[in-house]
Amino acid sequence: MTASGSDLVLGIDFEAGHGEASLSDLASALDGHRVWESVPPPATGDYLKDCDPEIYTRPWLEELVGSPDRIVAVLGVCAGAPLAVTLAAGIRRAGLGQPQVIVFDPAPVDGNVLAREFGKALESFAGQITDDEQQQQHAVGTLTADAATATGDDLVPPAVRLEEAFRTIIHGACSRLRVSTALEQQLADRFANYLAYLVACSRASAAAEFAEATVILSSHHDTGPPHGAGHVVRLPSEAGRLLADAAARVSEIIGGRPW
User: Fold this and answer.
1) What is the pLDDT of residue 151?
2) Is the pLDDT score of 6 beyond 80?
3) How far is it, in rounded angstroms, from Cα 117 to Cα 134?
4) pTM of this prediction?
5) What is the CATH number of the domain that holds 41?
6) Are residues 27 and 69 in the same domain?
7) What region does 154 belong to: left with phi over 0, alpha with psi -120 to 50, or beta?
8) Which ranges constitute the DSSP H helices of 73-155?
9) CB–CB of 218/225 below 8 Å?
């Protein structure tokens, strides 16, 4: 992302939905700040390690060491809210600054979320999936959704099942579509990275403290702010436009102006 200045804002999100405002829309309105968006570390398949919040955020923290910029804020979007809290705490412990934490429409991650995202990831292959693969998709999705109340470490087994099922199903679909092996691997790895991100977010939520965070909610956000949230702002914005519409408010918060 591009923006001028020596004040650094960090943003954590995996990917905006199709047609929705993203961190780029927010960054373009934050004059005088550089905005770095997180790049998810690659998943190795060891979910217990990959999804440990401290380990997950370590590459981002290490990249900040030696930076001449002043880290003024860490932003977390949707599921990424608790990871923003984790990263900000790591920045403080490392003596790299005292950033504010601002999160947008924070949402908990459970088995239902994993199952839903598994289904979405397979939507583009819907016409190429056989009856047997559809049954496998349904069985694995149902098994994961049944763990709807599971969080943290409890999400590791369903995440492993979903990754294995996804790789199996798209292998068949890619073979029928004559998709290259390299592209198939890229698609599978991206979904594995996404699962690792979601599980890391869920595990981070167990220890995340939002007392000093600012929570910005869209008008239709129905899960409410995280427990113990210190400052809550609700904007008359649709969820898909929240990041773009919140730019002025974020500038005020970072600048220390009353809101």
Assistant:
1) 86
2) no
3) 16
4) 0.92
5) 3.40.50.1820
6) yes
7) alpha
8) 81-93, 111-122, 131-145
9) no
Nearest CA to 99 out of 72, 133, 131, 127 is that of: 72
Comparing C-alpha atoms, which of 62, 105, 107, 92 is closest to residue 202?
A: 107
Judge whether residue 181 has pLDDT over 90.
yes
Of 169, 188, 204, the one marking the end of a domain is 204
pLDDT in tens, 54-69: 999 999 999 999 888 8
d(CA 103, CA 254): 13
Residue 67 lies in a domain: yes
- Residue 206 to residue 39: CA distance in whole angstroms: 23
For 212-223, what is the mean pLDDT? 90
Q: Are 167 and 93 in the same domain?
A: no
DSSP string, 1-66: ----SSEEEEEE-S-PPTT---HHHHHTT-TTEEEEE--PPPP-S-HHHHT-HHHHHHHHHHHHTT
* Cα 258 to Cα 150: distance, rounded to the nearest angstrom: 39
User: How are strands ordered across the β-sheet holding 214-217?
Assistant: 33-37, 7-12, 70-77, 100-104, 214-217, 231-234
- pLDDT greater than 60 at residue 18: no
Q: How many CB atoms lie within 10 A of CB 73?
A: 23
Helix axes 181-205, 156-177, angle to 10 degrees: 160
Distance CA 70, CA 60 (A): 15
**Is 99 in the same domain as 220?**
yes
Angle at 207 between CA 201 and CA 213, to 5 degrees: 80
